[in-house]
Design goal:
Layout lengths: L7 E2 L11 E2 L2 E9 L3 E9 L5 E9 L1 H4 L2 H14 L10 E6 L3 E6 L3 E3 H10 L6 H19 L21 E4 L4 E3 L2 H8 L18 H4 L6 H17 L9 H10 L14 H10 L11 H9 L8 H26 L64 H35 L27
Antiparallel strand pairs: 1-3, 2-3, 3-4, 4-5, 5-7, 6-7, 8-9, 9-10
């Protein structure tokens, strides 16, 4: 059974679509749409043909018209932009025109929920060593965010509040990254709708979060414990058919060790998972770093980034290649190279972020052609299989260069011809004239002139 319902493939332009440009970003194609935002592949262009792909998340109208939400969103997005870590998808920009939008690194790969869905469709589970490696990466990124400090050196007490398989991205480079800090924080801090209902992914909330007892970094640790349990078993832990049943499960349901469903899981890993899922915040791991360290110390082989990269290519290779082809098509390119991408200090590759809601469905891998007005459609992220892709020279620059080469060749040919003609003409003119009668002619040594471009 699938873990969650993931991201729906975009179905073309709608009345709510933003304009084709937002500030300095051109929207190329729609990637996904959920309950809070629509995600696009965008392009930012610079001088000398430089182009960079980004993920642009545009808030839906019912959120961007709420001034309280807008204020929190902008504040928290600016805060998230301070996080610089190889296991965190970087927030690059935030803007508000007629659209409220967030710009992030575009990472090639897919979310953990998609990998789990692919495994469950094959009636298999994610390899244990892959699951552990992905969680170590995600926890490392979480800890970096939790430890963030302001310009005055004081802790900012940043908490993600929406750690879930949808918000852990696994790249084709084998690196897992946590994403969506800005929008998660803003939404979670406005958790009550006007009709009094609680919003969010109930199945990944900590008990104290549901009880409104305060949100510390330990709620992220609990959520990461849920993610690890589900990654090891390929089944949901707390999610039930309705919200009330899900809330009751988070608060009261017995948590079975993962080895109950996958016999190969060792008892040491069971113990780590169950400690992270302790309903008493004081009894679970106090930091994401402590959780990651426990996984690192397991007496088992862990996957390397190369192993994870190979698994992602094998599991999602066809989908990724379709996405690469569509990106090239909507970008007006015919060569398989792609755009130049700033991968940052961590070898980070392009990808796209997920959407925050449980009430969306997983991406099917179906790719559609772009629609007028929206820049195109695509079900989820992707680009190419290199860390830094070569810059593409725009067509007009390429044409000018070819014309210049042809002109230079023509000038060389014309110059050589002129030089040859001059040499022949000069040779004839320098022959000695007949001496007048009775006088001897002086001796003249004729030297032919040098041809154009020759050295003396």
């Amino acid at each position: 059974m699938s873990l969650a319902r993931g991201i729906t493939a975009a179905d073309g332009a709608t009345a709510a679509d933003p304009p084709s440009t937002l500030g300095s970003y051109t929207l190329l194609t729609k990637l996904a749409q959920g309950g809070m935002a629509t995600v696009y592949v965008g392009r930012k262009q610079g001088v000398a043909g430089f182009e960079r792909l980004v993920a642009v998340k545009c808030c839906l109208p019912h959120l961007r018209d709420d001034e309280d939400f807008v204020t929190m969103f902008l504040d928290e997005a600016r805060l998230a932009a301070r996080i610089h870590h190889p296991n965190v998808v970087a927030t690059l920009d935030v803007g508000r025109t007629e659209v409220l939008y967030l710009v992030m690194d575009y990472v090639e790969g897919d979310s953990l929920v998609t990998l789990l869905k692919q495994a469950s469709q094959r009636e298999a589970v994610l390899p244990m060593e892959i699951a552990v490696r992905v969680l170590i990466d995600a926890l490392t990124g979480l800890h970096a965010a939790h430890e963030l400090r302001g310009s005055d050196g004081e802790p900012l007490n940043l908490v993600h509040r929406d750690v879930s398989p949808q918000n852990i991205l696994v790249g084709v480079d084998g690196v897992a990254r946590i994403t969506d800090f800005g929008i998660a924080l803003a939404v979670s801090r406005s958790t009550m709708t006007r009709d009094g209902r609680l919003k969010g992914k109930f199945s990944y909330m900590a008990p104290e979060q549901l009880k409104s007892q305060g949100a510390t970094r330990r709620i992220d640790v609990f959520a990461a414990g849920i993610v690890l349990w589900e990654a090891l078993t390929c089944r949901p832990l707390f999610r039930r058919r309705d919200d009330v049943s899900t809330l009751n499960a988070v608060l009261k349901a017995e948590v079975a060790p993962p080895s109950k469903f996958v016999e190969s899981i060792p008892p040491e890993l069971d113990a780590i998972v169950l400690k992270a899922l302790n309903r008493d915040p004081d009894a679970r791991y106090q930091t994401a770093a402590d959780f990651a360290e426990a996984l690192e110390q397991l007496p088992m082989d862990r996957a390397t980034t190369r192993t994870v990269a190979t698994y992602v290519e094998e599991a999602l290779g066809d989908i990724i290649e379709q996405r690469r082809a569509l990106i090239r098509e909507v970008s007006g390119q015919t060569e398989p190279a792609g755009f130049e991408i700033d991968t940052g200090p961590s070898d980070v590759r392009p990808k796209l972020t997920g959407v925050h809601r449980d009430d969306v469905t997983p991406s099917s891998g179906e790719v559609t052609r772009p629609s007028p007005g929206a820049g195109g459609t695509l079900d989820s992220p992707a680009l190419s299989d290199s860390n830094t892709l070569p810059a593409i020279m725009p067509g007009d620059i390429e044409h000018r260069r070819m014309r210049g080469l042809l002109a230079a060749a023509m000038l060389l040919l014309v110059g050589s011809a002129i030089g040859l003609l001059l040499a022949r003409s000069s040779g004839s003119a320098s022959a000695p004239a007949a001496a007048p009668t009775g006088k001897s002619a002086p001796s003249v040594s004729a030297q032919p002139p040098q041809s154009v471009g020759s050295r003396p």
